[in-house]
Amino acid sequence: MAAFGVICLVTLFLASSATACDRCVHQSKVAFFSNAQALQSGACGYGSLAIGFNNGHLAAATPSIYKQGAGCDACFQIRCKNEKICSKEGTTVLVSDLNQDNNTDFVLSSRAFMAMAKNGMGQEVLKLGIADVEYKRVPCDYKNKNLAIRVEESSQKPNYLAIKLLYQGGQTEIVGVDVAQVGSSNWNSMFRNYGAVWDTSRVPNGPLQFRFVVTAGFDGKWYWAKKSVLPADWENGAIYDSGLQITDIAQEPCSPCDNSTWKDSVNNF
């Protein structure tokens, strides 16, 4: 079983490496949701919490970016190419949903779409409907917020635990989650149910600790929350602080990127 686990982790790291060049500049198109509520029911499972993330600058991403949920909470800088009405720096969006439209890599919240504009030109950008853009992945910065765990309403003590991961920072993906009773070395694997939601039907008794496999490009490592994250009397709907900050910056060895068009950005990407 241990050997199988190692093989699985290696496979996950290689899979991450295969798509690691998302930090390069990409050319695409983006559209926007006219209804702000659309992204609250997104495939990542954030629900009504989503509108409070990243000042509401959210995006539904194509399957290659969504990565079966591993891309949830990833951040991308996007700028439109219409220099008359769009700023050089564009805006940063957070992935909260899956975009199945093959014509655009992202569908943005209207707030994020307008944020690509120069001052006073937001309505002009909206009139584009679909905009030609450049984008690249950037670190998520939660201003010193720790990774948080929300217990889902579907959890049923003591037989089933479902959690949602919030405030995952850096340029990272969480590809594995284990849970154990505090002080125990008997770890049980959790499995991605969908989006940012992980679950298990093997729930340890007592207060619970967690560990996470986190990748940044081709690199992967364990993050251990050794303290009691969930108390013995954990409650559905409650959010608990893991005590961990994930801030890794991707250092993947990918093919050279032509980022020359971004050298005039104020952020110097």
Keywords for this entry:
mainly beta, 4 helices, six-stranded mixed beta barrel, disordered N terminus, eight-stranded antiparallel β-sheet, 269 residues
How does the SSE layout of this entry go?
Layout (H helix, E strand, L loop, with lengths): L1 H17 L7 E8 L24 E4 L1 H4 L8 E6 L10 E8 L7 E4 H5 L7 H7 L2 E8 L9 E4 L9 E6 L6 E9 L6 E7 L2 E4 L7 E9 L2 E12 L8 E3 L28
Parallel strand pairs: 1-5, 2-4
Antiparallel strand pairs: 1-6, 2-5, 3-4, 3-6, 7-8, 7-14, 8-11, 9-10, 9-12, 10-11, 12-13
Instruction: Give the termini separation.
Output: 44 Å
Number of helices: 4
What proportion strand?
A: 25-35%
Helix % is 10-25%
Average pLDDT value?
86
Roughly how many Å is the radius of gyration? 19 Å
Main beta-sheet annotation: 8 strands, antiparallel
Report the strand count: 14
N-to-C SSE string, H for helix and E for strand: HEEHEEEHHEEEEEEEEE
Low-confidence stretches: 1-20, 265-269
Signal peptide: 1-20
Subcellular location: Secreted
Domain Expansin-like EG45: 41-145
Organism: Rehmannia glutinosa
